[in-house]
Design goal:
The complex is a heterodimer of chains A (about 110) and B (about 120). With about 110 residues, chain A is mostly beta strands. Chain A contains no helices and eleven strands. Chain A is globular, with a radius of gyration of 13 Å. Classes of the chains: A mainly beta (about 110), B mainly beta (about 120).
Chain lengths: ~110, ~120
Amino acid sequence: GQSLEQPSEVTAVEGAIVQINCTYQTSGFYGLSWYQQHDGGAPTFLSYNALDGLEETGRFSSFLSRSDSYGYLLLQELQMKDSASYFCAVRDKGRRALTFGSGTRLQVQP
Amino acid sequence: EAGVTQFPSHSVIEKGQTVTLRCDPISGHDNLYWYRRVMGKEIKFLLHFVKESKQDESGMPNNRFLAERTGGTYSTLKVQPAELEDSGVYFCASGSTGTSGNTIYFGEGSWLTVV
């Protein structure tokens, strides 16, 4: 089976940098994904890491270390609109569908 | 291009009643997934269709839940009879066969409240 752990809540101020960590346990591994969900909205894809290292997309970056079963999402130059829940997700050999973590609720304050 | 659409967006039913949720995936997406989020917890997997076939239904909580995808297009998820603990947001997502399966597109969810 799979399990993922991420902090339940994070608070930061506008313009700051925040890192949301995710550790996972899977039987086999096909990559770590990140999704963003605003209250009442649909989860939307942010990034995907299959290999170790940092992937950068604008203000958001995602990092993966397969040897440590660990990844993080880095959000820079925080804006109020970044307040949302952020989910890490993995896909492993046992299941073709994504398994999601419990989500980290990010609150950006002025 | 239209995204994943779900109907109804909100539903309030009494315990013991039946509710049917519908999902229209993005056109051409063979993979269709149902997920549920209860009380702000994790987005929990329910089942996965590839075209009209159930690829994985290991996440379905019990036999009160029935999902279909006749013709490999839209899908329905029926809860019969509904219980209080079935309340939550039911998300549908779709993805194309050509992707790694790590990028899927969600609908805005069907919010179910059982009273």
